[in-house]
Amino acid sequence: MADAYASLRLPPVRRYIAGRFLATMGRQMLGVAIGWQLYDRTNSTLALGLVGLVQVIPVVLLALPAGHLVDRKNRRDVAILSNALLTLCGLALFLISRNQAPIWTIYATLFLHGIAVSFEAPSTGSLMAQIVPPELFANANAWRSSSWQLAATGGPTLAGLLIATRGEATWVYAVDVGLSALFTLLLFTLPRPPTPAPSKGAPQKELRAGLRFVFSSELLLSAITLDLFAVLLGGATALLPAFARDILHVDARGLGWLRAAPSIGALVMALVTTRLAPWKHSGRVLLISVAGFGLATVGFGLSKSFLLSMVCLAFTGVFDNISVVIRLTLEQLVTPNRLRGRVSAVHYVFIGLSNEMGEFESGVTAALIGPVGSVLLGGLGTLVVVAVIALRWPVLRRLGRLGDLVAVDPETIPEP
What we know:
This protein is mainly α. The protein has helices at 11-42, 45-72, 75-98, 103-128, 137-166, 170-187, 203-216, 218-234, 240-247, 252-273, 282-302, 306-334, 340-392, 394-397. The longest helix has 53 residues, at 340-392.
């Protein structure tokens, strides 16, 4: 049996994962507060969907420049600055909620939040690969995912309790500010990696390098495309305030538990993963896990029971965790160090599109056919996506042990 704590024996890894835990907990609380406050003030599923739209626009516009900056500047410094900006966004939302400012100010702050995340995601994501030996990537990603899921379990639950107790979301934002600030301080304690040497390549070519690398790797492209469309169609998170109040008839505490349910399932699976030997057929496992995600989503859409809904959402987390660990490990193993920031940024475009655009898609379809119809359509669409990806990219079906993969030399990739 593998050493389950191998990566955690490294002090920088422990500090990194602890900081990510705190920041994630704050952001999960933020998501509950924003959803509850907007639906309480507008009674509109479209208003919930717009949260995803305003956050995905900066991701699409800034992903390539952000990835290029992360590969040209010191990654720790970029992570510190972007997390400081996220802390300021949390403070702005606190003031907006406290003073009952107009709805548009929430969206404006979330747009700024999206700008910060565009730089934070590739910088912190690629920073981890520089403090973990390659042979411990899978173990470190399992612990990173475990800590994320633990935070995503406690964050929504605590947010729901605070909202129900205080009768408003204001103090949830205050907690997010404190947790985000703590992560920013912890980043200062990590080893400062050397700043990359200035590139001699043409700026436009360097800017496109991450995009070119992703589209040249059938394995990486198929894995993140699978995630993009599965979460774009199958995600139900944005509609949980509507399900909680109008279908399951629960209060803010119930909403917090619904938001936490996927993370409870994912946390259990992540802890199991740290004790398992590497998958022998990683590609098949990835495809089956995404299909399971779609089936669990359909089950949630059909449920009228709070308990059954919790179980279905928990299983979406179980299956999502498996795909996340496989996808992150695959990316880290095949990507050379000098391209990690740009590849991570391109990867985040896919993730951002799937999460934020998925929220917008859910809000629009729910406004047209109702929240139940929106979730059922998305879950069935996920199953179709799995079948199409499996047929389109047989190399993904045949993927074996991730540990057998090696980084690809970017100089061997032809310019399209």
